[in-house]
Design a protein that fits this description.
mainly alpha; 83% helix
């Protein structure tokens, strides 16, 4: 009997985790920006910034699926702003786990941007190439911060 109750509780817990993950995915980038601005904890801000860049990349892909160039320019600027927030948050967190998570996220983002670059027209590629370069530079900074941490800060 106790195993049936345990099984039921485990299944209920997994269903709850799935629901909370679905709610996290439904957050709009505007909502994530508001949460980012209100969050005092630097590590949580970094997580929000990662989610924000994920959402902005999705919007960027959608903008390049349209025929109009105005949403593309807005999406590129919004993605750049999200990268700037990520840079600020990870730098403020100054924690190896945060830097590593952000580095892995940027590695995936770089691959996704390269894929997007191959799928857009030749005339649209320079804007995407600039984003790829910006992501690569930011990723490189995070990698160097992992390999050679700032000696002035104590380990947390």
């Amino acid at each position: 009997m106790w195993w049936a109750i345990s099984f039921f509780l485990v299944m209920l817990g997994e269903a709850g985790l799935g629901a909370s993950a679905a709610l996290a995915e439904e957050k709009s980038p505007a909502l994530l920006e508001q949460q980012y601005d209100r969050e005092p904890n630097a590590r949580k801000r970094a997580r929000l910034a990662i989610e924000l860049t994920r959402g902005r990349l999705t919007q960027l892909r959608a903008a390049y699926d349209t025929e109009d160039s105005e949403p593309r320019e807005k999406a590129v600027e919004a993605y750049r702003a999200a990268l700037a927030r990520l840079d600020t948050a990870v730098t403020a967190a100054a924690h190896a786990g945060t830097s590593k998570t952000a580095e892995m996220h940027l590695r995936r983002q770089g691959r996704d941007l390269e894929s997007l670059k191959t799928n857009v027209s030749y005339l649209d590629r320079p804007a995407i190439e600039k984003l790829v370069a910006q992501v690569a530079a930011l990723r490189e900074r995070f990698l160097y911060s992992l390999m050679k941490p700032n000696p002035g800060k104590a380990k947390q």
